Amino acid sequence: MSKRVSGQGCSRAMPASVAIQAVLLLCACGEADGPPSVTIVASLEEVFAVEAVIQLGEDPADSIAEIGDFVERRDGGYVIGDLHLPRVRTYDEEGRLEAAFGRFGDAPFEFQRIRAVAEAPSGRIVVAGSRSFHLTYLTRALAPDTMVALPTAAMDVLALGSDLLVRMNTGDPEERRFGHPPLLHRVIPPELVWSSYELPFSPFERPYWGSFSNFPIAVSGDSIFVMSGVRYPITVLDGAGETVGTFGTPSASFRPIEVLESGMLADLGSYGTTLPGLLASFDIIHRMDAVGPRLILTRARHNPERAMPPFEIVHTSLEVYDRHSGVKLYEDVPLPEGSRVLGGGRFLYLLLDEHFPPWRIAKLRLLTDE
Asked: Under DSSP, is residue 275 helix (H, G, I), strand (E, B) or coil?
């Protein structure tokens, strides 16, 4: 049974109106006594301390439209893909702008939009663009380097040891509709090493589910964690692509999606709802990030006030697992209104206002690991 934490350090209640400001003042006083024996429902300041708040520098002639994919670099600093513009930018650890690259188009080293970025073991930057059947390699200084062909467009790219882990649908359309083709592919460009993690449901079996969720992935060492955003458990793969276990359960407050009948969206009025209302009626796990020995799941919902596409995903709370044992340590850890989790690594990175500059990113340190 979950319980409310009390008497730990400087825990205190906060009104919702000051939630964003309070994340800047999360207290670092007090040390945790070790992992709790039961899952704890806790506030953000009881689980994390703020190591620093970074304000990203901007070029006035080349400003960020909105922060998209985010990567913590091995030697410090960050790589950020713009959510709306075909631009990739690098920053040092203090948030100073170092380099920027990208232009709109379909020619080599051009992008429609940036879908994912990663840092290759060599230090080069790997970019997956939407509608591109290539991985684009840039130098550390973001100069054009090379391009590697893929069987189809990549939806996500992560570093996996000395290789890359690419999420992409490689089956033909008929197989993807009725079958369970593998979604994850270990790549030593341009060679495919293995394919693994078959889709847990097909569009034929679960109409609409594929459009309403994603498949969050995290990598730590040679371990891969992946799940469907609309249902548990988390699947653990080893470096050879073999499933070695599963773990994870939703909290009591998690609202799962119903099994929707084919054609339901054409007549939502008879169900007494609208599409935004339907989307806001269930929760998803939108991100998974490895932070030291922990695995952080970001829970989200659709914004019911966005009546027209593109629909907006709102990050609402966190779950914290020990990634070695699979034990859930914390659940229902609320996030400040308007914030968005960007990624993990040595810290958990939280964008304090996801839509408007100045772009301030809080580096959150887990108190349980002190």
From this structure: helix
